[in-house]
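Q: How would the C-alpha cells look for this protein?
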Amino acid sequence: MSVAPSGSIQASALSFVLLAVGHTIGGKQWTSEKAFKAIANSRPWACGTVGWYQGSAFFLVSAILHYQWSRDPAALNDPLTKAMAGIINILLWSSSAWYAKHGINENAWAVGLSAALQAYAVFKS
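A: Here is the predicted structure in C-alpha cell form.
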C-alpha cells in the first residue's frame, strides 16, 4: 500500500531549510559584533561559534528528516520516529521562548512559526 506524500510535512521541511539559512546568516551577523570579537580565541568564543554552526547543521538535518517523512508519512506511526519529532518540536518551542525572553523577537517568531507548522504536520493524525 502506497501512502501519498504529505504536503504539510514538506512545508515543515522547507521551514527547516529556511531556518538553517537564516541561522547561518544570523551567526555571521552576531559574530561580527564588537562585543563578540572582544572575546576572540577564548573558550566562550570557540564554543559560541561552533555551537551556532552546529545549530545550523541541526536545522538542515531536520529538513532532510522531515522531507524523508513527507515521502512516507506512515513512518511517523513508529513511536521512536514520533519521539524524534517530539524532541525537535520541544527544542523549537524552547528556543522560541528563549529568544522571546531575551528580546530577539524576529528569531522567536521564525522559530515559533516553524514549531507550530512542524507540530501540525507531524502530530495531526
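The mean pLDDT is 93.

Helices lie at 7-30, 34-37, 43-71, 79-101, 105-123.

Upvote if useful.
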